[in-house]
Amino acid sequence: MNPLELAGARPGPAFTVTFDGRPVEALPGQTVAAVLWSAGVTSWRSTRGEGRPRGVFCGIGVCFDCLVTVNGRPNQRACLVPVRPGDEIGTQEGTGREESGTGREEARRAD
Q: When comparing pLDDT for 100 and 51, which is higher?
């Protein structure tokens, strides 16, 4: 595609995803991080040790600070995952292992 054709490009119609059960508007092509930022959400993960809030840090998928749960799958990098209509996005606590059914004790041993 000719890059000049993109100058007039417009996103398709908005659709809805949910974040922690709350409806959030998204546009085609946006990442989870972009959708959350647009909705005013800047933190969607807590660190495993002290529960400190985290969101986007590097924005290019290198640092893992933006981990989020998408459709029940923990440890998804919000800066890389494109949203799709109906996605269920959730705050990730610590390593995300508790959310996926792995016990808290096993998560501690792995850390």
A: 51
Amino acid at 69: T
CA 101, distance to chain mean position in Å, is 19
Handedness of CA 30, 31, 35, 37 (dihedral sign): negative
For residues 74 and 66, what is the distance between their CA atoms, to the nearest angstrom?
11
pLDDT bucket at 108, cuts 50 / 70 / 90: very low
Q: How high is the pLDDT of residue 107?
A: 38
Q: How far apart (Å, rounded) are the C-alpha atoms in residues 26 and 24?
A: 7
- Listed in order, strand segments (DSSP E) in the chain are 15-19, 22-26, 45-46, 53-54, 67-70, 73-77, 88-90, 92-93
- Per-residue pLDDT, 1: 61
